[in-house]
Design goal:
Rossmann fold; elongated; 434 Repressor (Amino-terminal Domain); 14 helices; 3 domains; 47% helix; DNA-binding; homodimer; 346 residues
DNA sequence: TTGTACGCGTTATCAA
DNA sequence: TTGATAACGCGTACAA
């Protein structure tokens, strides 16, 4: 053992174990997989188990997958691992997957449609059993392709293209409206919304929630659109807002955008919350640090839910809801401190 | 096509393509893998390519891996995906891996030794070609096992157990010393260090750097140890510090610990930097938000470097350095603002 | 209760 | 230049 210089010593296979236990390989297979139909003499089983143990035998998932026609592996597409909101979703998905014996292959798309298409191809060549798509911008063609091939997938934090897809999202419209309700209740009537990219369902829905709520309250909502979900874009978009007479309240379509607004506000000489009430969306760690009023989303639950939904689909289990919409909660923090606003109202 | 209700239509295999192109499967294999040794008539190749195209043929990575005895897959063990520092490392690793045709299977260990052992087992059953270990607490037995089996792995941001391991780290000792140098240069003589767990090489090295630098400067360094790398533990550890006469400067072994110190300081009525200079380590987005002086580490580069190192090992390429120590840079921000300290010195 | 035979989809090797 | 054969490691009808 170990006479080979560069290569590691070969793993022992089912045949090695069979020889050691003086049985046929198929008997080893039966002894080691505790299927109900497998009846074999305890003595034989013990001999096999002992041999397997002695040789440190581990079945090859590869060979098994080839035979069983499933890999017990899920793919996951995310636009940016470093985004703390997505990290929570990934964590939840990873945990739920592993709980059911599935591994998770992660793909970071950088929100680039070409990379998404490439990754989907790679994942399918690797025969993952299904994919979780947390990517916001995916070209519809890619999703359409999966639908056409009946390839199992679940959309996470991203609207459905087709009506029949499996989807896990939050109620963006209601949540965005809740933020506006909150701001209006503090007396604000000139509210700005830094919307996410229109090309994403998430961005569109949140903006729609703002518009609807503003109309209902009869207040003015000015909407500027960010091109990406980044702090830098929030800053850029907000800078436009503060050129003329600034609004008294601003709502970023996610926390990063709100942080960008915060920076722009400071540069424009506006204090938060004294001169500008500010809210975000997602309740990321950054929101906590910046004391930001925001919408709390149960990220890990969202990821876990999506993974479980996909696995249920794969295992042919009954699916209660194809379209899961998680509730979200408003978290009020210092950035919309009522005390300050009372002064403003007075 | 599509007569099957629940299951998706079967993928076409190499045999299907062979039949369609009226050649032998092995010819299809040769036509589609552009190896130098493969000489075949352009006409034949064209016919095969056309057939493959028509059938939407994708080779099965599974079958190929079985035959080739490699999966072009890497495993990666991280203690916590949601940690922004690790997220950067993961991102860099994922990108570098995919660049060379490798996929990355992510495993979140929660820093629990049992889960690490389990995951290593799972990854090896799946026959990943190697693993990246960014986990700080891994039981030495697990690492020893991989070493004994000559199973390829690279340690990331974690000290080596064995001298011959492949390792990518930052120069923790020098960096920690640089922080102390900085604080001393501002006039501080009573410096506290909230160290990471002693059981981790990272924690131990940073503490050692602090001790060495303090001794060199002839100043007092009080060290308290956190049990985990979390904000909560930073808070708990720092609370002890502020019972008696507080230090004038504090250094958290990572940014999260420093944030915990920040919270404790505020509760104790100490303003940062007016009453307490504060520094962290890693330069995470949180450090930027909290305006924290810290050590900048090129996370993505670190992850990418580790992945490339592992792949070089796998592909038998020459390896220049087995033990890569990346430099880190001190980033001075408001939490150790010189102006404030000058007042303190005077 | 256990052994035999075969197939999962590829590719390396040898023969033609 | 192409075809035939075998093997990668496993699981499962079917036979014994």
């Amino acid at each position: 053992m170990g006479q080979d210089g560069r290569h590691r010593r070969a793993r022992s296979t089912i045949t090695d174990v069979a020889k050691a236990a003086r049985v046929h390989p198929s008997t080893v297979s039966r002894a080691l997989s505790a299927q109900p139909g497998h009846i074999l003499r305890p003595e034989t089983r013990a001999r096999v188990v002992a041999a397997a143990d002695r040789l440190g035998y581990r079945p090859s998932a590869l060979a098994r997958s080839l035979r069983l026609r499933r890999t017990l592996t899920l793919g996951m597409l995310v636009p940016d691992i470093a985004n703390t909101f997505l990290a929570g979703i990934i964590k939840g998905a990873e945990e739920a997957a592993h709980e059911r014996g599935y591994a998770l292959v992660l793909c970071n798309t950088g929100d680039l449609p070409e990379r998404e298409a490439t990754y989907i191809r790679v994942l399918r060549e690797r025969e993952v059993d299904g994919v979780l798509v947390a990517s916001t911008r995916m070209a519809d063609a890619t999703v359409d392709g999966m639908r056409a091939d009946r390839f199992p997938f679940v959309l996470v934090n991203r609207g459905a293209g087709g009506t029949d897809d499996l989807v896990v999202t939050v109620d963006n419209i209601a949540a965005a409206a809740a933020v506006v309700d909150h701001l209006v209740s503090l007396g604000h009537t000139r509210i700005a919304h830094v919307a996410g990219p229109r090309s994403t369902t998430t961005g569109a829905e949140r903006a729609a929630g703002v518009v609807a709520a503003a109309r209902r309250h009869g207040v003015h909502a000015e909407i500027v659109e960010a091109e990406t979900w980044s702090e830098a874009e929030g800053y850029r978009a907000a800078s436009q807002l503060f050129r003329g007479e600034p609004p008294t309240a601003a709502f970023g379509a996610n926390d990063l955008l709100a942080l960008g607004v915060l920076r722009a506000a400071r540069e424009a000489g506006l204090a938060v919350p004294a001169d500008l009430a500010l809210a975000g969306f997602n309740d990321t760690p950054e929101a906590v640090l910046a004391d930001l009023t925001t919408i709390h989303v149960a990220q890990e639950e969202m990821g876990a839910h999506a993974a479980r939904l996909l696995i249920a689909r794969l295992e042919g289990e009954p699916i209660a809801e194809r379209n899961v919409v998680l509730a979200a909660a408003l978290v009020v923090r210092g950035s919309t401190a009522a005390g300050i606003v009372r002064r403003r109202i007075a």
